[in-house]
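Q: Sequence in, structure out?
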Amino acid sequence: MAIARPRSRSSYYLEDAATEFQVQGLELDWACAAWCGDFRFNGTGWDYHDFRGDRWRNIASPENRVYLRNAYRVLVTRARQGMVVFVPPGDADDPTRSPTFYDSTFNYLSDLGVPHLE
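A: Exactly. Output:
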């Protein structure tokens, strides 16, 4: 008797990454969102950045800040059963991925009660 194996392109495989545009309107059973250094918690609120050239630049435009915040809202509201939010540890040797860009966001999500996966 042969064992049925899930086919690729099925919900059993993590094979596609998608932007907020591609997931808008979708309801996924499970989702994984990777948190970038563009939207950072600073201890009291959010900082908004855009990566241009070889460094992060502050987003000053209120409209562009709303756009970035809504992009994350779309990404973290797609899952129906559960989701994983991946906040990278950063790299102290890479000024474009400094741990300070990620640590406060990780700690904020932890303080909200988001459990850690080890």
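Helices lie at 20-23, 62-76, 100-111.
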